[in-house]
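Project outcomes to date are best conveyed with an example. Our students and postdoctoral researchers have been running inverse folding experiments weekly, and each run begins with a structure described purely in tokens. The record below, which covers 81 residues, was selected by the lab manager from last quarter's runs and is presented without edits.
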């Protein structure tokens, strides 16, 4: 079965749950809000990395980027709501 031609571009293992878990750990160390206040609203697989969006009650979104090979966070960004 062909997955829209993208399957061959993806790593051997796509693990969205692991990406979310790492992003939540990163979020807990950020000053954006109390740990556990954020809700994961999106997970995308970009070339070479996962992009996880965590939204907070005040509308701000913490975007966490995670390398899809090393599982190391590569950056964060806060978007205003």
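After processing, the design step wrote out the following sequence:
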């Amino acid at each position: 079965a062909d997955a829209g031609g993208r399957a061959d571009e993806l790593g051997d293992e796509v693990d969205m749950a692991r990406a979310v878990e790492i992003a939540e750990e990163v979020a807990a160390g950020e000053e954006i809000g109390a740990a556990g206040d954020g809700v994961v609203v999106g997970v995308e697989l970009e070339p070479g990395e996962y992009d996880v969006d965590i939204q907070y009650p005040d509308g701000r979104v913490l975007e966490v980027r995670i390398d899809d090979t090393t599982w190391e966070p590569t950056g964060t960004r806060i978007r205003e709501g």
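Strands lie at 39-46, 49-55, 61-67, 73-79. The longest strand covers residues 39-46. The training component of this project remains on track.
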